[in-house]
């Protein structure tokens, strides 16, 4: 798609100034010229320093036997002891596996649904029908997880609407929203309800930017509906698909927190525990200690960082743009 | 081919000439898919609204969950919400947090995005990297929690606004918009006419960016309005909680769960009745309404914002 391909990554879009002009100006001169911009950027930089980089630096306590009750420099370094304890923790591996399971579900079952929706949407010709449909399917994206879970319990819960219908018909009470075995499916349904429509938006934009004359040319060469889909539509949205895949793979260990925490009581921790809830319940609610919780979070952060770099690298090798360009 | 076979079929208006009319079955499958999907979204929302207006008798007759067709209309649940109790306080708190938080976030985002859109300025690249690096690595839940504690923000409403006030993704979206959609000549012209950076920002750049600013403001506002996790994490000890936390407690209390029993006991202790389905659904409606009101004005700009973000993210 034209808009995506023609736009260079942030580093590359600087307007090259003639080097002569640049060399002539000293830092002091540039400061005198640019101080309003620095002033404008300052609050953001300060905010990130305090709420992003400072906590990031605190990750060092994952390698220490940290206690808040003694001065920071008196905490002894213990190497990877906390990570060892983390990997030996009987609750950690299930949490990690659950996280990967939900991430795989997201990758395999949400993407195709969004693409399918976008293709179906794109073939609606009436603009009125289209925009009505769009308004409807984007809306749940803006609902909170609390709301989504509440609505699901009311509709599909044990005392919910569907359960009542089934019981009126002489059937058994439904226990869909509290059944650990079907939790994966429940999660998928909630995702599909909340976010599949929103996920479609970017594919729609990609579809709209495919040059219609390509279709016309293919059709006059005798390509049918399915061939056009395969040879024009799908290659047309390929950069977007790859971009989103990279983002997804980078965030593979961040499948969210609220959706699982909210249903933990009803479904039980075995099925709902993911890495984020694990950190929360072990180190903030529980008493595993500061260093342990930090080590668990750091593990997640580092794996995420590695995954995003690797995925981006693969995208470059495939000849796609990825998130950032090799510099 | 015979002339009869060549007879043109009835065509949908606006369909491009090269596109053959799809078969009836194909159309039906597609329509069914889209209609089912839309219905699965609309029907529950409709049932929630219908139930929120139901009286207790009507609800009991229906089994206590949801009503598709309201048999009567009673504003009882809404009267209860706005009667000045804990629910009213919670709604006022959430609204305040949303307004204050959105204002702070938007101001920070605009300043950051504009500063970064002026390429080649002093320290431009280091600052850009400071922002971009936040995409690659998150500090983690526990260190963030620790910092909030160290700043003395734990159990303070500021901890619900400040730690997440800057969405670096939004900065990058807005920066991309400033750079790509506002002609550089215009800014140069302003400079030549003697306008400083601030005047350029307020008089030229911002008035041209109303649409995208509205979308970003909506993203921020929805984030604050739907805030749940931060409240659970940073302000568990405060009496008045954001509306999502209150809704979660109501949900638990009627699900018959351990945590719910606690909440139910709380309701008994304060002499309030445990929430009926109507009350719960009325709270749900109250949390949806602000979103639904804002939504139609901003919805048509979504695509642009998302695309700009995807390009630059």
Automatic annotation (TrEMBL), chain A:
PROSITE patterns: ABC_TM1. It is a multi-pass membrane protein. It comes from the Bacteria. GO terms for cellular component: plasma membrane. The chain crosses the membrane at residues 35-54, 102-125, 137-157, 196-215, 236-257, 292-311. Keywords: Cell membrane, Membrane, Transmembrane, Transmembrane helix, Transport. Residues 96-311 form the ABC transmembrane type-1 domain. It is found in: Cell membrane. Coiled coil: none annotated. The keyword rRNA processing does not apply. SUPFAM superfamilies: MetI-like. Belongs to the binding-protein-dependent transport system permease family. PANTHER family: BLL4140 PROTEIN (PTHR43227). This is ABC transporter permease subunit. It comes from Glycomyces luteolus. The lineage of its organism: Bacteria, Bacillati, Actinomycetota, Actinomycetes, Glycomycetales.
Automatic annotation (TrEMBL), chain B:
Keywords: Cell membrane, Membrane, Transmembrane, Transmembrane helix, Transport. GO terms for biological process: transmembrane transport. Residues 91-294 form the ABC transmembrane type-1 domain. It is found in: Cell membrane. Pfam families: BPD_transp_1. Belongs to the binding-protein-dependent transport system permease family. This is Carbohydrate ABC transporter permease. The lineage of its organism: Bacteria, Bacillati, Actinomycetota, Actinomycetes, Glycomycetales.
